[in-house]
Amino acid sequence: MEYFVQQLANGLTLGSIYGLIAIGYTMVYGIIGMINFAHGDIFMLGAFAALIVFLILTSFFAGIPVALALLVMLIIAMLMTSLWNWTIERVAYRPLRGSFRLAPLITAIGMSIVLSNFIQVTQGPRNKPIPALVTDVYHFGDITISLKQIIIIALTAVLLTIFWYVVNKTPLGRAQRATEQDRKMAALLGVDVDRTISITFIMGAALAAVAGTMYLMYYGVATFNDGFIPGVKAFTAAVLGGIGSLPGAVLGGLLIGLIESLWSAYFTIAYKDVATFALLAFVLIFKPTGILGRPEVEKV
Amino acid sequence: MTQPSALENSGLMMQAVKEAVFAGAVAFGLFILYVGIETYQDINNALVWRTRWGLLFSFVAIAAFGRFVVVGFIKPHLDKRKRAKAKAGIPEVTDHKGFFHRHFLKIALVLLLLYPPLSVMLAGTQGSLKYVDNFGIQILIYVMLAWGLNIVVGLAGLLDLGYVAFYAVGAYSYALLSEHFGLSFWVLLPMAGILAAFWGIILGFPVLRLRGDYLAIVTLAFGEIIRLVLINWTVVTKGTFGVSGIPKASFFGIWSFDVGAPNNFTKAFGLSMSSAYYKIFLFYLILALCMLTAYVTIKLRRMPIGRAWEALREDEIACRSLGINTVTTKLTAFAIGAMIGGFAGAFFATRQGFVSPESFVFLESAVILAIVVLGGMGSLTGIAIAAIVMVGGTELLREMEFLKHVFGPDFTPELYRMLLFGLAMIVVMVFKPRGFVGSREPTAYLKERKAVSGSFTKEGHG
């Protein structure tokens, strides 16, 4: 039982990170209907920004409190990825908005290749380890929960609440939902569609930066190709939960995190990703639009 | 055309300067951390950093200058040309073709057939290896894969992001069956195709109900599952070590290319020992396989099944209401596409003599899909051109030794191969979203055949 609860905690931590990335996928998909393949690499850029900021901070202010350092890392990483995602949308996706559906997918894949290779060229191909930032652990009986895990889960919960509020209760969220439903009609009714889409990309990127910073704090290492696997998993999570649905993305992320940690704990670690992907295929056979996705009604 | 007035011109320049400053500021923000600061490990293995202001400055300068030129000169020029074109009323696609255009395919085929002897003549027996193997065979493998994927994506409109899985199935089928049962290439080539087709159907069944992007992620997952199984099922596949010592293909069993064999090709003809002959043989083999793929694709497009694929791509609901069986239509598209991937895989295994899961990563699927889309989906010629430009172009980077003289001896052009590949994907898509060949030749027509613009065909929703 203790073992199970322990794995549950690990799974929730991992799932939170996936969920944060998945929101970026699902929001962009919801609003312009494209798979933003480069989103995983935006997450990687966030982790690298946090890493570089950490190095600068520790070399200038040796005794800086960890909480402050984390906050600065988080904010700069968020600004950084927001600027990147904004630029990417302007340069690579916006010119193709009226084009056929596969065109932005190809530029997104191209962008993903560019971003990971850009970091490989500028920062080198080796693993970048940093010293452990948060080392406190708490014992509840036989269960050990680290402060890192608590931070990640709590931060995810807080951000999701803020996010949910923004999307459902503010004028910005209303503009987003209107753009999602009918872009042309929203534009006719005075919604600045371009601006709304840009803000959506920025929001997704900021969450990816949070995920990246948390990933760096949790594992203490970053590599140029870190974006791919978490990116694909988060995308899987978004689809599993029903792409376009915010709670679905988080649910999918948590589900995948749990499956991964429980499968590695009780079966073999080698096939954990196979289990995740097989589950995705299995769920989609019975619910072709994901767990919380709205069934697409296609009219002739 | 009237010359723009001086006032208009200075306004344009002002705008260009403004935009250039803005682009420079954005570039500064984008690159300050990643380019301006370099992280590396010092002697104690601790991660430290140093600044690279010079490099950062050149990035910012390039961005600003590039934007200035685009806004100030290129864009007004393009606009002017577009207006002139619209005034003259020249349609985008014309039926008027020059001699080269009309006989393009024949000329291309003759050139391909002459390519190996030409490279032997120009670069010598040993020197031709590079051109025949690294360029010729490499490009033709991608042409074949892209033509195979074209059946699934371009004709049937099913977005497949895991095509490399079938390539892997074909390669491992040949590698493992030849190792354990000692069967020859010519027996295993069709078998690899059939096994891959079988896997295509296995993938096809669960995804029959899925549409568009759901289909994309499941196919991606399928590709990853195959790769992960290849890595982890070490008893059979030897995991990441891969299968080595895969036998070479023989000349239909008449002549062998193994060095020790009594019926060795070079011995039989009294030629000097060289692997170049084997490579030339492989070149013609993959060329024949490509031609077979093209022939099958062209013929299928005129057959009921091909018409059903294209109808499915355009509108699935209309398809169903007209009584087309979408299940068999989708499954045959997956199976035939996969079979071609399997053939290419078996060829790849015999060419490399070694297969490992490393060769079948998602990036390969992405590259193949990119070639299909960049070529203009559905157009065989366009896809071949895209493969030559994208694969040949990146291979060319390996050869650019002279760049070392420009950028110093530490410069390795290979590092920038994928970076440039990705950039090329973006640039081509942004400027030619319909791909290199933007016109289609319909198979059904009234009275006379007319090419139509690619914009008239839809890519469909799975």
TrEMBL record, chain A:
PANTHER family: BRANCHED-CHAIN AMINO ACID TRANSPORT SYSTEM PERMEASE PROTEIN LIVH, HIGH-AFFINITY BRANCHED-CHAIN AMINO ACID TRANSPORT SYSTEM PERMEASE PROTEIN LIVH. It is a multi-pass membrane protein. This is Branched-chain amino acid transport system permease protein. Belongs to the binding-protein-dependent transport system permease family. LivHM subfamily. It is found in: Cell membrane. It holds the Pfam family BPD_transp_2. Its main location: membrane. The chain crosses the membrane at residues 12-35, 42-62, 68-88, 100-119, 150-167, 197-218, 238-259, 266-286. Keywords: Amino-acid transport, Cell inner membrane, Cell membrane, Membrane, Transmembrane, Transmembrane helix, Transport.
UniProtKB/TrEMBL annotation, chain B:
Keywords: Cell membrane, Membrane, Transmembrane, Transmembrane helix. This is Branched-chain amino acid transport system permease protein. The keyword Membrane applies. It is a multi-pass membrane protein. The chain crosses the membrane at residues 20-37, 53-74, 104-123, 135-153, 158-177, 183-207, 214-235, 276-298, 331-349, 361-394, 415-431. It is found in: Cell membrane. Residues 15-115 form the High-affinity branched-chain amino acid transport system permease LivHM N-terminal domain.
